[in-house]
Design goal:
The protein is of the alpha/beta class. It contains nine helices and 19 strands. The longest helix has 16 residues.
Length: about 475
């Protein structure tokens, strides 16, 4: 590991993962730590940024930013977002880097007092400047100068949704698409220190999705959040997301509303709609591969589908009978079908098997048995639920032995409340303790995605 210092920041350059048992995808990992500033116009909480760059990418085309929410737990659990195999699969598909932030707040307050979260989730308090600074430093150390100029796809949860919403207004020319899980700026206008921001007209051409949990609905009836002014009197992600949807849609904004029927503020299985949504937007908007022009392409709105707000049936825009200015906007048929399933069930289905694991390495460990380690890439549609270890073509073991899925579907990297992998991260490693010295067996690995579909077995390997 190399350490490089830029002023008051420290860049850690992490190399490829060894064969000790992979915990996450191969690639280049960079980290930057910034201490808290004491200047009033700069970021007053410390932050760690992590950037993952997939192997084999010659020119990075964009950055997928996975931004955690407010509070100390969110900060800690947000630190693993760049290690997420499923989000890495989306990033690799589009030659993008994957970005995680961990703002080191000191308490659970959501204001601008010392150590509180509003110090970062309002980008105007300094996190915008620090984010842009980090882009330049990552660009230099990664040997990818384009990092400082490529566009961003923004995903944010809670306070992270506020951050993504405001950053989009500040930098509309850089944003491919936005996913706001249980958070947007209008939900915070009830706080007098959080001032409203100008929304440039160009923002309305950026595809967005608001995604609150149905269990976040206020128990008491409140006025309908039709305007930005009405939102100032309301609190909470549910009403804030609706207000954002209505305000943007009234201006022709390309924005959807996807209520999660199974959850409250936790992220649940929202990734199974968020990833296809961002995938579709990246496909339509990223500049052509190899192009020096980084101008984002406009969305092809001829493919859009529409649905009634709070409804669960979408139709091609040309066939929609309601008022388009009040309708949920969806970028294409594939996303519309996933949306229809998600708003009814809280998840989506999948019929495509995952890719087979690779780089299987087998070594004898004496009395401990035989160690098998491997690499795998996640299924973009459904992630990795686990693995099956085969010995001489017969099932030997399953990993994990007991599925863990407190938040959402059970996955090999079990999920936190915040849509990030739980720590400690599991290893792609298994020790065959029943193997006897001198015996030669062929070992192969099968990936199983989160809906139970199996890959083909990897190429078999044995002790050399």
């Amino acid at each position: 590991m190399n350490k490089l210092r830029f002023g008051n920041s420290l860049v850690l350059v992490l190399g490829l993962i060894s064969f000790a048992g992979r915990t996450h995808g191969a690639g280049q990992y960079l980290k930057i730590d910034y201490p808290a500033s004491t200047a009033a116009n700069e970021l007053q909480v410390a932050v760690t940024y992590t950037l993952w760059i997939p192997d084999g990418v010659r020119t990075i085309r964009g950055i997928i930013v996975h931004q955690h929410g407010a509070g100390t737990t969110a900060s800690i659990e947000g630190s693993t977002a760049a290690l997420d195999l499923h989000w890495q699969a989306l990033a690799k598909k589009w030659d993008c880097a994957l970005w995680a932030s961990s703002y080191h707040v000191q308490n659970e307050k959501i204001d601008t007092s010392p150590g509180a979260s509003e110090l970062w989730f309002d980008p105007r308090n300094g996190s915008e400047k620090t984010f842009l600074k980090a882009l330049g430093e990552f660009a230099s150390q990664a040997g990818h100068p384009e990092i400082d100029k490529v566009p961003w796809a923004l995903w944010g949860h809670s306070g992270g949704g506020i951050w993504a919403d405001v950053m989009t207004a500040l930098h509309p020319d850089r944003v491919v698409a936005v996913w706001m899980r249980s958070g947007s700026s209008l939900m915070f206008l009830s706080h007098p220190e959080f001032t409203d921001h100008e929304v440039p007209a160009s923002v309305y051409g950026i595809p967005m999705m608001t995604n609150p949990g149905v269990k976040e609905k206020p128990k008491q009836p409140l006025p309908d959040p039709d305007t930005r002014t009405a939102a100032e009197k309301m609190k909470g992600p549910w009403l804030g997301n609706i207000a954002t949807f209505k305000a943007y849609r009234a201006h022709g904004g390309l924005i959807g509303f996807a209520p999660d029927p199974l959850t409250g503020h936790e992220c649940g299985d929202s990734r199974y709609l968020a990833i296809p949504f961002l995938d579709a937007c990246l496909a339509m908007r990223l500049p052509d591969k190899g192009s020096k022009d980084q101008t984002l392409k406009p969305m092809d709105t001829s493919k859009a589908w529409l649905a009634p707000l709070f409804g669960d049936e979408a139709k091609p825009a040309a066939d929609f009978k309601g008022n388009p200015a009040e309708a949920v906007w969806l970028p294409n048929e594939a996303v519309a079908k996933a949306w229809m399933e998600y708003v009814k069930t809280g998840s989506t289905s999948d019929t495509t098997p995952p890719p087979a694991p690779f780089h299987v390495h087998v070594s004898a460990k004496g009395e401990q048995g035989t160690e098998i380690v491997w690499s795998a890439e996640a299924d973009v549609e459904s992630g990795i639920g686990g693995f099956i270890v085969l010995r001489d073509g017969q099932e030997l073991a399953k990993l994990p032995e007991k599925p863990v899925g407190k938040f959402g579907r059970p996955l090999f990297q079990s999920m936190t409340y915040h849509d990030t992998p739980s720590q400690p991260l599991p290893q792609m490693r298994y020790v065959d303790k029943s193997a006897k010295a001198g015996e030669k067996h062929g070992y192969s690995i099968v990936s199983v995605n989160s809906v139970g579909l199996k890959s083909l077995p990897s190429v078999a390997a044995s002790v050399q």
